[in-house]
Amino acid sequence: MHASHPQTQRGVTLIELMIVITIVSIISMMGVPSFARLLTSNTVSSQVNGFLVDAHFTRSEALKRGTSVTLCRTVNPDAAEPACAKSTDAGGWESGWLVFVDSDNDGVRTSSEQLLRVQQYQGDSGGIRAGDGTAYDAIRYRATGWAPGKAASLRFLPKSAAAQSDVKLGRTVCINTLGRVRSMNSSAADCASGSAS
Predict the structure, then answer these.
(1) 6 phi and psi angles, rounded to 5 deg
(2) Residue 168 counted as domain residue
(3) Which domain holds residue 184?
(4) How many domains is the chain built from?
(5) Can you tell me whether residue 153 is helix, strand or coil?
């Protein structure tokens, strides 16, 4: 005859299950803020990269066409005939920007000047601010590829007010006196000495 051995059942107790759920909850709570910060940083970086592409495009078009080409901020990027914003217009570069052949080299687009590109500012970021506190309305490249003028910076900021104070989440675009455009993680004050990315 076979002796019957009771089978031992194995499983987890309610207390063990609660401990596992608590540990998973704690780990999740630590990871969510880091992930949100990463998303914010990537949104700002994406906007900066779009601006840099258009700035480099502006310079290459000036060299290719042998004439002045301007990248300027606009308050009406979705208009049939978008125009450059005036220094008296409210807002910064947050509405968008445009690139056009600047035949009369005045930094202002007229309907006779060819529009090359219009960019409506996209994204969930807090906007773009002049990094040095001055109005910087346009980058104008001459046929030589130079953009004479005053060095300036534009600060791309995340949307949330708490994140705007965090220098690491914002990005700065530096424009030197020759028109070289580069981006940095740090503040606008570091444009002269910082490393480009």
Answers:
(1) -65, 135
(2) yes
(3) 48-190
(4) 1
(5) strand
